[in-house]
């Protein structure tokens, strides 16, 4: 079971890293799929910065956690995707549903659950005595 969980974490991390690097290198190819319409250079710059940071950080943390069997680092992507899920749920209540709203929420929920399961199942890094 731990092997399957680790594989899911690693594959998810790789996918997130690729998405993050895609937003950095070629944001126009991904913008439409995420329901975005950036306005000018400022909007494109924000899209590149924020989406690259979100997905690349999540991806690297998941890859590191899966590779090193470190449960502690999986709290980072769990928090990021958990907060994203809460934001979408809030928007669903405040703004209403739209076509295809369920898929991103499902991906965020599954990623959060998988990362939390990995946090629970994989070893935790011992606390450092050095500062």
Short précis:
The protein has 131 residues and is mainly α. It is 75% helix and 0% strand.
Topology:
Blueprint: H1 2-25, H2 28-31, H3 40-68, H4 75-95, H5 102-121
Question: What letter string, H or E per element, gives the SSE order?
Answer: HHHHH
Number of strands: 0
Largest sheet: number of strands, sense, barrel closure: none
N- and C-termini, Cα separation: 36 Å
The shape, in one word, is globular
Rg over CA atoms, rounded to whole Å, is 16 Å
Average pLDDT score: 92
Q: Tell me the domain tally.
A: 1
Count of DSSP H/I helices: 5
Strand content range = under 5%
Structure description:
The protein is an all-alpha fold. The chain has one domain (2-121). It has helices at residues 2-25, 28-31, 40-68, 75-95, 102-121. Helix 1 (2-25) crosses helix 5 (102-121), helix 3 (40-68) crosses helix 4 (75-95) and helix 4 (75-95) packs antiparallel against helix 5. It is globular and about 45 Å long. The termini are far apart.
């Amino acid at each position: 079971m731990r092997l399957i969980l680790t594989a899911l974490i690693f594959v998810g991390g790789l996918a997130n890293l690729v998405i993050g690097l895609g937003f950095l290198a070629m944001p126009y190819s991904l913008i439409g799929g995420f329901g975005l319409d950036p306005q000018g250079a400022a909007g494109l710059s924000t899209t590149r910065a924020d989406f690259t940071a979100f997905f690349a950080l999540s991806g690297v943390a998941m890859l590191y956690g899966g590779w090193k069997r470190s449960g502690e680092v999986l709290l980072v992507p769990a928090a990021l995707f958990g907060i994203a899920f809460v934001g979408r749920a809030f928007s669903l209540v405040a703004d209403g549903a739209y076509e295809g709203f369920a898929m991103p929420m499902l991906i965020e929920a599954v990623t959060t659950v998988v990362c939390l399961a990995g946090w629970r199942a994989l070893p935790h890094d011992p606390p450092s005595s050095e500062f």
